[in-house]
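Input/output pair, single chain:
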Amino acid sequence: MSEPILPAERHKLTPLNNLIFMSRWLQLPLYLGLILAQCVYVFHFWVELKDLILAVLGNETALRHIFEAVAVPGSATSTATKLNEATIMLVVLGLIDVVMISNLLIMVIVGGYETFVSRMHLEGHPDQPEWLSHVNASVLKTKLAMAIIGISSIHLLKTFINAKAYDEKTLIAQTVIHIVFLLSALAIAYTDRIMIGTQNQSKTPH
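Output:
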């Protein structure tokens, strides 16, 4: 009768295999870099929000900065001398855009690190993201695609607000690009569904 294999012996890696497996930590500087990018977006968000508040209070410098940031040549916003509904909407959409990109960064940082580098052992933590409990490469890919669609929707809405300042080709091109994002997300989700169905069939006893 053969002796049982101990867990330590079963999971022991050769030096080469261990080196290859440890190479996943090379991704750590990439995720730390994305954290720094997140800090840049937080700073940008508060700068834009401060300018919006000061512009509402009548600060000329903040008002000029707002118009330079959101005005499109040829639109009504570019010739405005005070905040109007369209200008405020464009600024707010810009803030929402920053938040959505920040959410995208969080998904890449947390989900990517958990999936490809090391477990974070957040089970039972009150702030654990709901999606992180079942995250894998396919789930992360689908969620990133949905986040990109949301960001694209914000940019498309900003374009439609100033539709008169754009030519027809630009409007059509942006709409087509957004539709391509939608179709790509649907294709990714459908492919993942097929793969999950195939895996479930292979596990089902015959």
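Residues 142 and 189 are 6 Å apart (CA to CA). The chain has one domain: 26-203.
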